[in-house]
Design goal:
Elements: E1 15-19, H1 30-40, E2 44-49, H2 52-64, E3 68-73, H3 79-93, E4 98-101, H4 117-145, E5 149-153, H5 165-185, E6 191-197, E7 200-201, H6 203-208, H7 211-220, E8 227-228, H8 229-240, E9 251-254, H9 263-271
Parallel strand pairs: 1-2, 1-4, 2-3, 4-5, 5-6, 6-9, 7-8
Bound molecules: nicotinamide-adenine-dinucleotide (NAD).
Nicotinamide-adenine-dinucleotide binds near residues 31, 77, 130 and 153.
């Protein structure tokens, strides 16, 4: 058995689409981190965002570091727009190997009687339907690549209850969609995997939580650290790369170990 070669430029020659490639605020969200890391590892990246300005900031970071990317302004809850994103990517770079469905909105943690129907629909559309629409548009190109990869960004809220019905439901269904893709397209050489980020410090979180809440998030993880967008990007890079060629259909929590603890006993243990 030959010794595995050293991996440099782990996505060299690959073309990737990353949705939600901009970030709220001035920090680095997961889409921005994934796009930057992919470009640094040799991929040519289509930066999809409904905000041209936000995606433009990511583009500037990539170009400054010598990477290759272009911006595609699109709302990925619109099927026609998703078709245009896939077509523009192939037109630009001649192929498509990797699709990252990262777009997502945080759902309100209200009781059902306070959760209106429009909010439910919006959460499902942005967090779930977008992944279906983008995957549908990308599928023929990923199949043509014969070594395609889909990486979806779910949440630990899709595995355990986080008290947000629409968000949790959308993220759980995204994990199920990933499994379906893995089985449906496996024979075409297309892999599909999903990441479940836990308590990640991103601009979205910064705008929602105060210092005390952030400290609680940090302490609840066995590792007692809060993750950041680069932790999610590192997992996405591995799953998108050929290093993961034998991995499909799995959900990878990036959560400091928090999902695997049984709440009460672990909490008591961590007080000692
Ligand atoms: N931050 C966390 O702690 C955390 C935890 C678990 C999961 N996640 C997931 O990670 C993903 C990214 O989170 P983030 O905090 O980096 O996001 P973010 O709020 O910074 O959003 C990234 C980008 O998505 C774009 N976007 C939103 N809706 C869109 C649409 N319909 N079409 C095109 N672009 C759209 C926004 O314009 C924004 O630039 C989400 O799916 C989120 O649910 C985040």
């Amino acid at each position: 058995m030959p010794y595995p070669k050293t991996f440099h430029q782990r996505l060299a020659g690959k073309v990737a689409i990353v949705t939600g490639a901009g970030s709220q605020g001035s920090g680095v969200g997961t889409g921005k981190a994934i796009a930057c890391l992919f470009a640094r590892e040799g991929a040519s990246v289509c930066l999809v965002d409904q905000s041209r300005e936000r995606a433009g900031e990511t583009l500037a970071m990539i170009l400054e570091a010598g990477g290759k990317a272009f911006v595609c302004e699109a709302d990925v809850t619109d099927g026609d727009a998703c078709g245009r994103v896939a077509a523009a990517t192939v037109e630009h770079y001649g192929a498509l190997h990797v699709l990252v469905n990262n777009v997502g909105v945080a759902g309100a943690g209200s009781r059902l009687e306070n959760l209106d129907e429009a909010m439910w629909d919006r959460t499902i559309d942005v967090n779930l339907k977008s992944a279906f629409l983008m995957s549908r548009s990308a599928a023929p190109h990923l199949v043509a690549a014969r070594a395609g990869a889909v990486v979806n960004v779910s949440s630990t809220a899709g595995i355990r209850s986080h008290g947000a019905a629409a968000y949790g439901s959308s993220k759980a269904a995204l994990i199920a969609l990933t499994r379906e893709l893995a089985v449906m397209y496996g024979r075409d050489g297309v892999r599909a995997n999903v990441i479940a980020p836990g308590h990640i410090f991103t601009p979205m979180v910064e705008s929602m939580l105060d210092e005390e809440a952030k400290e609680r998030r940090r302490k609840i993880a066995p590792l007692a650290i809060e993750g950041d967008a680069w932790d999610v990007a590192a997992a996405a890079l591995f799953l998108a790369s050929d290093e993961a060629r034998f991995i499909s259909g799995v959900c990878v929590p990036v959560d400091g170990g928090v999902t695997e603890i049984a709440a009460l006993c672990a909490f008591e243990q961590m007080q000692r």
